[in-house]
Amino acid sequence: MSRRERLAWTALIAFALVLRLGALGARPPHHDEAIHCDFAYNLMTQGTYRYDPTYHGPLIYYVIAPLFALFGASTTVGRVYPALAGVALVALPLALRRRLGSGAAWWSGLLLAISPVFLYYSRFAREDMPVAFFTALALTLFLRVRRSGWKPIPWIGVAAAGHAVMKETFYVTVPLMGLSAYVVALRDGVWASVRRAFAWIDRYRIAVGTAILWFVAITVTLFTFFFMHPEDWAFPVKAITYWYKQHEVQRVGGPWFYYLPRLSLYEFLPILAALVWAVRRRRRLKRLEVFCLAWGFSAVALYAYLGEKTPWLLVHQVLPFIPLAGAQLSRTFSSRGRWWSRALASAGLLATAWSALASSFLYPAITTSNPHAELIVYVQTTPEEQALANRGLALAATRPEGVVAAVDGEGSWPLSWQWKRIPVWWGAPTAGMHPPIVVCDPDKEAAVRAVLGDGYAVKRIPLRAWWVETAAGATPAAVLRWFFTRRAWSPIGATDVVVFEAKTT
Q1: For residues 315 and 372, what is the distance between their CA atoms, to the nearest angstrom?
Q2: Residues 331, 448: contact at Cβ < 8 Å?
Q3: What is the DSSP string of 157-186?
Q4: Largest interatomic CA distance in the chain
Q5: What residues pair up with 426 in beta bridges, in sequence order?
Q6: Taking residues 420-447, what's their average pLDDT?
Q7: Whether this model's pTM surpasses 0.85
Q8: What does the pLDDT look like over 89-98, one tens digit per residue?
Q9: What is the torsional sign of CA 125, 413, 470, 482?
Q10: What confidence tens digit (pLDDT) does each residue in 270-301 have?
Q11: Which end of the chain has the least Cβ crowding within 10 Å, N or C?
């Protein structure tokens, strides 16, 4: 590797670190983030955990809990693991620079660094960014076998286990990869491909067996909480049964095309660049390129079919297109690229960078008091709620004794995480109670007012907000205006709470 290339990779990784760790705690905690942090805190302080597929796999808690012990329990620390996984994902193409080409590898890293979806969910205490890293790591290790021999193979089992113990998307990704391998086999001849596969397994049978053994050992150990819950050894049945039911009832539903506008408006660059690369090469596509194309399109199709529709699942749809897009951008910005293709690619890079900046730093939270909103930001805790949480923490610092607040109803999350270590009455105030802060649902306002009496200032604030996306208002002009200004073309909705604050505080 030349000195220039080393400097380019160093700068890219440093850039990814700054994007992912800078102002990491500025956004209020999402409902799910509060749950993940709360579970990790309980694991750290009480040593309790039991696998529940509702809250995904155990690894996120096993990682965040030690981080809390080392650096303190906070939402910011809870986001460090996904942030570092995001940085590692940006650096991962470096391990394939000989297979992809040095230019394609670096451009793939840059696309991962500035991707709005990858950046936003690298700064989010959820499982999707570590899952993307483990998925890409397993594929990278497999591709390294041709050069390094059997040594990477056992680590494929570790990487696959990392995905499995993070999130149940494992049971989606593995079939998609199997289907993509079949598409490659169709081009090369199915039986010839099967014979090659069996020959490969036979050649590396000890390493493959070791990989399987490591996968089973890691997953069973972690899902059973180090054998404290041996009944959870059948975790795949538990996971698939639960999530198939969620698919059927569409707990978090949406239209089949839910992801298409988001892919078009945020991740158009890697998808279009990958398609240009595929069209240019056509019959000259290599096996890896065919695999990535099949994986990408089948992922978009399957997630359109599945009943669960959430923006963080975009991560798993965009990932397969990245290596192809990196190859195309490498060619575009080389001496072989045309001036107009460079101009188009540069415009795409600038538009992608703007979307990444807006979604992660300018408008990462939605509220009814601000007309700006992002399509990849889901139901999100509001800045008004964060200000309330901060007031409670400040008040607790001045009151060594006594209840600081009473919280009843919807406000329990994420306040039960944010106020984890201060004295709070988790319920409606009773006769004789006069805490400095009381939070309740709007339909309980009259009852709480009757208990508290005079002496409180009362206001209603949005707790969680979301963009009510309507197709009726999504005219081309409105969408174009949104892209440049981020002003939503339809209303912003919210769940409100009522806050009573003692006038003497």
Answers
A1: 23
A2: no
A3: HHHHHHHHTT-TTHHHHHHHHHHHHHHHHH
A4: 83
A5: 407
A6: 95
A7: yes
A8: 999 999 999 9
A9: negative
A10: 999 999 999 999 889 999 999 999 999 999 99
A11: N
